[in-house]
Each structure stands twice: as C-alpha cells, then as structure tokens.
Amino acid sequence: MMVPSFRVHVLPRIPAKLGKAYYALATTHGALGTVTELAGLYILLSAGTSVLPEKLRITKYKVWMRSVLALWWVVLLLGMATYTRWYVPHLFRK
What is the DSSP string of the chain? Predict the structure, then answer.
C-alpha cells in the first residue's frame, strides 16, 4: 500500500536528499518496516510450520517475539512521524 507512494516521492531522491527529514523518515520507516516484517515471517515459519529445516528453527520464542514487538512499535512511531511530516507541514515551518 505504501510502496507506490514511496517509489514516486522518495526513491528517486535517495541518496541525495536523505539529509532532509521528509525523505529520511520515510526511508528509515520503510527499511525498518521491511526488516521487521521479514523477522515476523521468519518467526511464523519457524514456529507454525515445518517448512524450515531443524537447524534454522528458533527455540527461544519469547526473546524473538519481544524483539519483533519492540521493532513494530518503533516502526509504528516512525510511520506516525512520517505521516505528520508529510501531511501536517505547518507544524514544521517557522
């Protein structure tokens, strides 16, 4: 859902404009969100299926789940910051 907007508005300006909050927030939110999503899928595959080989399965679920939960909260806050920066610009003007 967010990929088309990111591709049109942010991706063409990376890395030249990463010093600006408008682009840095969106890029950080997208990158960390992707990592968090992949970690969540890894936990799901490891815990809920036998798709992964025994070597790649995790045993300490609590640590993994808490880590991914913390990452989700960070991604959520970054998403709110991105939305605020993009759609409520008068807060940031002098």
Answer: --HHHHHHHTGGGTTTTTTSHHHHHHHHHHHHHHHHHHHHHHHHHHHH-S-S-GGG--S-HHHHHHHHHHHHHHHHHHHHHHHHHHH-GGGS--
Question: What are 89's two structure tokens?
Answer: 């610009």
AA identity, residue 50: S
Tally of domains in the chain: 1
Determine, yes or no, domain membership for 94. no
Rounded alpha-carbon distances, angstroms, from residue 11 to 18, 40, 52: 10, 25, 33
Per residue in 18-69, pLDDT (tens digit) is 777 778 888 899 899 999 999 999 988 888 788 888 888 888 888 999 999 9
List the structure tokens of 84.
Answer: 């605020």
Identify residue 47 by its one-letter amino acid code. Answer: A
